[in-house]
Amino acid sequence: MAVTFRLTEEQREIRALAREFALGEIRPHAAGWDARRGLGPEVFSKLAELGFLGMRIPEAFGGLGLDLKTYLLVLEELAWGDASVALAVAIHSGPVGHLLLRYGTEEQQGRYLPRLAAGEILGAFALSEAGAGSDARALETLARRDGGGWVLQGSKKWVTNGDLGGLVLVFARREDGEGMSAFLLEGGTPGWEVGKREVTMGLAASETVEVELTGVRLGADALLGEEGMGFTYALEALDVGRVGIGALALGIARAAFEHARNYSRERIQFGRALADFQATRFKLADMSARITAARALIHEAASALEPEGDGASSMGEPDPESPSPGALAAMAKLTASEAAVWIADEAVQIFGGYGYMRDYPVEKLLRDAKGMEISEGTSEIMRLVMARDVFREDET
Q1: Distance from C-alpha of 194 to C-alpha of 188, rounded to nearest angstrom
Q2: How far is residue 28 CA from its own chain's centroid?
Q3: In terms of residue numbers, what domain contains 223?
Q4: Both 385 and 331 in a single domain?
Q5: Fewer CB within a 10 Å sphere, N or C end of the chain?
Q6: Strands 142-146 and 149-160: what pairing?
Q7: Which of 376, 380, 393, 395 is catalytic?
Q8: Is the backbone of residue 109 left (phi > 0), alpha (psi -120 to 50) or beta?
Q9: Measured CA angle at 229 (ends 388, 130), to 5 deg
Q10: Annotated catalytic, 49?
Q11: 115-173, pLDDT tens digit by residue?
C-alpha cells in the first residue's frame, strides 16, 4: 500500500532494509514461532547485525542514532513481519533505552548502551504488578536502603523480555510509601527469579513473564536518575512506548489489509472475484483510510515528542491549542490499536471460513492486534489521558 509521507532518502533506505529483513528473516518463521510460543534466538543476532537493536542509541555508543520517526518506521516493518519480534525490540529500544539515555550517568551509559546496541543484552521494563496495572502508583515492590546500596522486594507481572533481558529497568517505592524510584538490574542478579511464562491469546512468541524479587541487593550506582522520580520517568517512558505500540499496530493492520486485498483478488465466488463485489471494496477502502489516519497521528505524535531534527522548524511554531505530546501519543496508540483490531477482524471476514483457521495468517494477526489495545496502557487509559488534556485549562 503506497501512502505518501515526507521521508528523507535515509529514512526510505532504512525502511526498505527493515522491510527486506521482515520479508526474508521474520515472516517465514512467524507461524512456527507462534505455534511453539518462542522466538528463535538467531533473530536477535540478525537484528543486532543490522543495527536494529541500537536504533535510538547514539553512534558514540555503537548505535545508529536514529530519530524517533525513523525508529517508528522500522518498528512498523518489523511488526508487519511479526509483532512478537517488534514488541521485543520496542521494549528494548523504547522505554529502556530512552530512560537510560535521558537519566543515566556517564558510567551507566558507558556500561550498558554499547552492550544494548550490540545485542549482548536485551532490555526489559518491569513496572506493572498484579495489583498495579493501569494504576502504577499502586505498586507494592519495595526499595529500602541498606548501607550504601538498596534491597528490592516484590513481584512484577507482564515483563516482556523478562526471561531474556540482560538489563531490567525495575520500579519500586520506598518503605514509607513516599516516592517511586527506577533501578537498573542485571539479569542473573541473586534474588531475581523468573516465574511462569504467560500464556497469551496473541503475541504468543513474546517472552512475557512474571518475576519475583527476593532480597535483591543493588549498589548505589543502580539507581537511575533521582530518587523519588520514578513515576515521572515511567510516564515519560510510556509516551515513547505508546507511539511504539502504535507503530506495531500499524504494521499488523497493514499486513492484514494486504492479505485481505490479495485474497479478494484470488477468491472466486458466484463466478466473480471477491474484489469485484462492492461490499468487499468498501471494506478495503475503510481499511486503507484507517491505516492512513493512524499513520498520520503516529508521525504527528513523534514530531511532538521529538521536535528537533524532523523539519518542524521550517513549518512554524507548534500550535498552542494542539494536544500535548503525551495526549498525542495516547491518541496515536488508541487510534492505531483499535484500527488494527477492526482491520484484522474485517480481514478474517473477507477470508470467511479460511480466515478462522490457523493455516491462514489473518487469524494470528487478529490475536496479535488485540494485544495492542492493552500494551502500554489500555484503550480506556488512553481515553483518560486524552480527556485530561481536553480539560487541562480547567485544572490550571
Answers
A1: 9
A2: 22
A3: 125-229
A4: yes
A5: C
A6: antiparallel
A7: 376
A8: alpha
A9: 70
A10: no
A11: 999 999 999 999 998 887 777 778 889 999 988 899 999 999 999 998 876 899 999 99
